[in-house]
Amino acid sequence: ALANIGVVGLAVMGSNLARNLASREGNTVAVYNRSRSKTDELVAEHPEAGFIPAFSYEEFAASLSKPRTAIIMVKAGRPTDAVIDSLVEVFEPGDIIVDGGNAYFPDTIRREKAVRETGINFVGAGISGGEEGALTGPSIMPGGSDESWVTLGPILKSIAAVAEGEPCVTHVGHDGAGHFVKMVHNGIEYADMQLIAEAYDLIRRGTGKTPAEIADVFAEWNKGELESYLIEITAEVLRQVDAETGKPLVDVILDQAGAKGTGAWTVQTALALGVPVSGIAEATFARSLSSHPEQRAVAASLPGPDEEFRVDDVDGFIEDVRQALFASKIIAYSQGFDEIRAGAAEYNWTIDLGAVSKIWRAGCIIRAQFLNRIADAYAEQPDLPVLATAPYFAEALTRGQAAWRRVVVAATQAGIPSPAFSSSLAYYDGIRAERLPAALVQGQRDFFGAHTYKRIDKEGTFHTQWSGDRTEIEAEDTH
Ligand code: NDP
């Protein structure tokens, strides 16, 4: 018998995905890995899966029914290109090559274009949820052509996580749209994690509660509007005691946060698109700042506030932090969806933002009930310009903004860094401002560079002759 789906790359992610595929009714899975040992091992350890092993690309192609469909799960970058080239050699027009790795979306756009010229379909699919998700059900964000979705859709639906009866996969858009959306998912994840970390820091330093006590706070929060996987695991991490020292684990972990680069991609892309994803940017920078011990060592001599930070009303403060966290989270997601909207416009993708929020409800790291509210907002108004203004979110911001301000003031006075909380609040105040000092910036730009400006009271483009008699003239629009 032939396989209806194949997997190339049998490290952790690929082998788990292959097992997931094999466990679903109707799938027969062909497997191939560059070094034979991984293939032998997988097949030997999982006879129940009925894998069809292949030891060359020719054998792999021959073991697949048409249209041949293969998911690549190898190291991102050059290895992915090498595997694509090999598959193109043995596949035929109409076949489908899926890259399930963490590719940078411009690479996916490039690869899709090159592979399409051979008549073979190329699909970049963001797969979120790590090893566990790959095995039990990830959230999947495929791009690529409509034609490939016809074959691929049912296969991906069979292995995706399920949220309220719906599989967490949708055809996001053409070529690089899937990897773009996966990138923004990761950026939002950075912001969400940083906000939770800031909430923890403020509570700990403001109230003196122990990590285990703060774990209880997070567990309680997880029953309300903040309910999410990240809040849940935060409680677990805070409750963990180090076996060696008997201390809270969080106190023995080195405070330097790593990153694999998807946060930076999200921010770089947002800068190029002109989208202010300040929460994601601050979260990414906060990791960078933490990871420069040499700078932190010399800067440690700089002074902080004189008075010690202690809150009087502990319960009141914790509730303020909860509200600030929720408000900041709304802004982070609003900014992330703004980036997807802008990316779709730039790259001519038709992306259903509500559908994207729904496929994040399970299988991925930012999974949460909250995402249903985002889906509701886009169902109500698909072209909503600012997600945070949707009724449910606007109500939460209205309710929480006073607490949010108190928390940012307290953090500032206490000298506790809260870049994600405070930048989100600054965005909130900026986007809702009736008038911004951008008018002055335009005046400055016109002064030194004759960059011109528009007026609020008439059409046209103007320049003040700053170095002459300072009269205003109509000018060519030079931006
Ligand atoms: P790795 O990223 O560690 O890659 C190892 C695999 O790549 C092996 O199968 C290896 O084959 C293969 N490989 C490396 N170079 C080549 C090459 N030149 N030609 C052919 N094959 C090659 O594996 P992971 O399972 O950790 O991740 C796979 C993909 O999934 C990556 O793109 C990664 O970014 C992504 N990922 C996603 C996660 C998520 O949560 N979504 C989590 C982890 C990873 P060999 O055995 O012969 O060396």
UniProtKB/TrEMBL annotation:
This is 6-phosphogluconate dehydrogenase, decarboxylating. Homodimer. Keywords: Gluconate utilization, NADP, Oxidoreductase, Pentose shunt. GO terms for molecular function: NADP binding; phosphogluconate dehydrogenase (decarboxylating) activity. Catalyzes the oxidative decarboxylation of 6-phosphogluconate to ribulose 5-phosphate and CO(2), with concomitant reduction of NADP to NADPH. It catalyses: 6-phospho-D-gluconate + NADP(+) = D-ribulose 5-phosphate + CO2 + NADPH. InterPro entries: 6-PGluconate_DH-like_C_sf, 6PGD_dom2, 6PGDH_C, 6PGDH_Gnd/GntZ, 6PGDH_NADP-bd, NAD(P)-bd_dom_sf, Pgluconate_DH. Substrate binds at residues 102, 128-130, 185-186, 190, 260, 287, 445, 451. Pfam families: 6PGD (PF00393), NAD_binding_2 (PF03446). The keyword Thylakoid does not apply. NADP(+) binds at residues 9-14, 33-35, 74-76, 102. Residues 178-467 form the 6-phosphogluconate dehydrogenase C-terminal domain. Its EC number is 1.1.1.44. It comes from the Bacteria. Pathway: Carbohydrate degradation; pentose phosphate pathway; D-ribulose 5-phosphate from D-glucose 6-phosphate (oxidative stage): step 3/3. It is an enzyme of class 1 (oxidoreductase). GO terms for biological process: D-gluconate metabolic process; pentose-phosphate shunt. The active site is at residues 182, 189. NCBIfam families: gnd (TIGR00873), PRK09287.1 (NF006765). Belongs to the 6-phosphogluconate dehydrogenase family. It comes from Microbacterium barkeri.
